């Protein structure tokens, strides 16, 4: 990805650091995504483990392809949208409401307490990544020709 100026570099770094954070969390704590997938009922229980591995893996591959300018930022935006949809769907079902039925420190308590801020952060990052993609496609950087 070609970078033009300090603001563009900052926004690009912000998007890619967010990708790295989400991917690391997905690889080291897949039970968070698995719990959301099971409790929302989006995926049958037998597919939860492969999907919890596939989400961060796909996000990492798409971001690396975009970083090395092999693909556009669209697949990364799609992966962000999947994470945002999952968190938003869980909020829509009311999983983020505190009913005092979860033991403090349990997995459910930790995941559902972070659900609403996570949704808004993912929504902002998705919008920023979309704006970055539009900016990159509207104003492409022309590389100077080499030894013609």
> How many E strands?
0
Shape summary: elongated
Summing up helix and strand content along with how strands pair, one would put the structural category as mainly alpha
Give start-end ranges of low-pLDDT stretches: none
- Mean pLDDT rating: 88
What is the share of helical residues?
over 70%
What is the element string, with H for helices and E for strands?
Answer: HHHHHH
Biggest sheet descriptor: none
Fraction of residues in β-strands: under 5%
The N- and C-terminal alpha carbons lie at a distance of 24 Å
Total helices: the number is: 6
Question: Mind telling me the C-alpha Rg?
Answer: 18 Å
Please describe what this structure looks like.
This protein is mostly helical and 148 residues long. The protein has helices at residues 5-28, 30-40, 48-67, 74-92, 107-113, 115-138.
SSE arrangement:
Elements lengths: L4 H24 L1 H11 L7 H20 L6 H19 L14 H7 L1 H24 L10
Summary, kept brief:
The protein is 71% helix and 0% strand.
List keywords for this structure.
mainly alpha, 71% helix, 148 residues
